[in-house]
Amino acid sequence: xxxxxxxxxxxxxxxxxxxxxxxxxxxxxxxxxxxxxxxxxxxxxxxxxxxxxxxxxxxxxxxxxxxxxxxxxxxxxxxxxxxxxxxxxxxxxxxxxxxxxxxxxxxxxxxxxxxxxxxxxxxxxxxxxxxxxxxxxxxxxxxxxxxxxxxxxxxxxxxxxxxxxxxxxxxxxxxxxxxxxxxxxxxxxxxxxxxxxxxxxxxxxxxxxxxxxxxxxxxxxxxxx
Length: 225
Known about the structure:
Distance between the termini: 33 Å
Radius of gyration: 20 Å
Mean pLDDT: 80
Strand content: 5-15%
Strand order of the largest sheet: 2-1-3-4
Low-confidence stretches: 21-29, 140-144
Shape: globular
Number of domains: 1
Number of strands: 4
Helix content: 55-70%
Order of helices and strands: EEHHEHHEHHH
Number of helices: 7
């Protein structure tokens, strides 16, 4: 597994990895054969249709549909933000690609600092959301789907996977560090306005063969003008 230490500001970094189209939430599934594969394929297609509906330019339906679409967009953003930690939860060996203007010691310290902070953050919210999930059970008496419980349950699972990934990467993963000049160039663009840096960020993402890196950098780097 390859993880990138992306510079997003002065002495600020984020961990980033990009999943290939291997049947995950953003990619196609192979032809379904068995029963469970068919169920997974149907869920995959239904999820993509739900996301497309939530992202439409002109929302349709009433207030409930609007709330549903906002919840779906929030889940999509959560998946994108936590994908790296989720991927690390079963990883025993990984490569950390870091800006070439950082020493290995500095890059490793930044990685461990991010992982430690993530473990504390998601561990705390895992406990909070688990309590909320138990409390949301009172709404089972309300007719219709318990949307609140479904959403809180997703948050519980998401925080658990992220906490587990952060702990795994801190304690059990063996890391190999590799410097990358393109990431050093990317770090020098973080202080520029978005419009001024866009073409250069796109070029760096293309050179690294990371199609989604530019969008991630725009979400996390400062300033965002």
